[in-house]
Amino acid sequence: MTLQTAGIHHITAFVGDAQRNADFYAGILGLRLVKKTINFDAPEVYHLYFGNEQGAPGTIITFFPWSTGRKGRIGGGQVGVTTYAIPVGSMAFWEQRLAAYQIPVTHVTRISESYLSFSDYDGLRIELVEREAGPLSTWSFAGVTAEHAIKGFGGAVLYSTNPEKTADTLTRTLGMELIAKGDGYIRYGSTADLGNIIDLKDSPVPQGAGGSGTVHHIAWRAKDDAEQLEWGRHVQSHGYQPTPVQDRQYFNAIYFREEGGILFEIATDPPGFANDEAPDALGQKLMLPAWFEPHRALIEENLSPFEIREIEVKQG
Fold first, then answer.
1. Is this structure's pTM higher than 0.90?
2. Which domains occur in the chain, in start order?
3. What strands, in cross-sheet order, belong to the sheet with 42-51?
4. Does the pLDDT at position 135 exceed 90?
5. Residue 108: beta bridge partners?
6. 3-class secondary structure for 12-42?
7. Computed from CA positions of residues 33, 44, 296, 272, in that sequence, does the dihedral angle turn out positive or negative?
8. What is the pLDDT of residues 253-267, one digit of tens each?
9. Cis omega (within 30 of 0) on the bond before 271?
C-alpha cells in the first residue's frame, strides 16, 4: 500500500492567556471556536480549537493557553510560520483590518508568492496568502465575511535542525512531492486543497525552545482509523518509533519526532468536532471526555473563564 497524506490536519501551539488567544483568533482573525476542552495530559490547561464552521481538517489551529508558562523561542525543530489561505483579492481587506487593530505587518515574497506576515499576541508567526484553491469559509464573525474570511491553512514553514533528513521524511515517509525551490526554501505539495503546501527552510536552524509563542506539533491527515494503523506500520518501517494510538475524542492520533527535531502527528479525519456537540453549538460549552466528567467541578474551578467577543477598534 502506497501512503500519501492529504496534507495538514491541524497545528497545535502554546500560548499565554486564554482570553487574549480567543480575542486574536476569533475576534480579529474571525475563526470559529469549534471546541473548548482540556489538555487530556494536563487537565488544568485548556485545549482550544479554532477553524472553519465545521472545524474541517486543514483549517484547525489548536492552543494550550498557560498563563504561567515560560516564554518559548522559535527555532529549529518547530513549525516556524503558520500560513493561512485567503480568497484572491482579499489581501487589502486584511492589511487594513490588521492595521486597525494596530498589528504590525510586513510583506514577504517566497517562491513567487506574496505574503502578509505578522505575529499574534504571544509571538506566534502567522502569514496570509491569496490562493484560489479551497472552498470559501461559511463562517462570518466580527465583520469578517465569506468573501474575505480565512479559508484554512495555506500550509506551514518548517524550521529544521537537519533539513536533509526532514526533506526525506516529507517525501519518502509522508509521500509529498517536491514542487519548487527558491529564496532559501524547498516547497512540497500534497493532494488536499487546503493545508497542502509545505515550505522547508533549506539551511539548518538553531534549536528552538518550547513555550508560549511556539508551535508544539504539526499533524498530518489520515483518512480513517484503518489507514492510521497502516501509517503506524509505515512510519516504523522508516526507522521511527511512533506512539500507540491516542484517543483525542475528535480524532485518533499517533506521534513521532522526525530527525530534524519536529514533532509530527498523524490524525484521523473522523469523527470530527460534532462528535459530542451539535454543529450549531460547537465551542459553547466546556467538553470533557467521559473519564474526566467525575472531576468536572474541580477542572472548571481551575480554569480561567473567557468569552468569544468582538474586539473594539482603538481610536487614535
1. yes
2. 8-302 (3.10.180.10)
3. 32-39, 42-51, 60-65, 8-15, 214-222, 263-268, 252-257, 246-247
4. yes
5. 115
6. EEEECCHHHHHHHHHHHCCCEEEEEEEECCE
7. positive
8. 999 999 999 999 999
9. yes
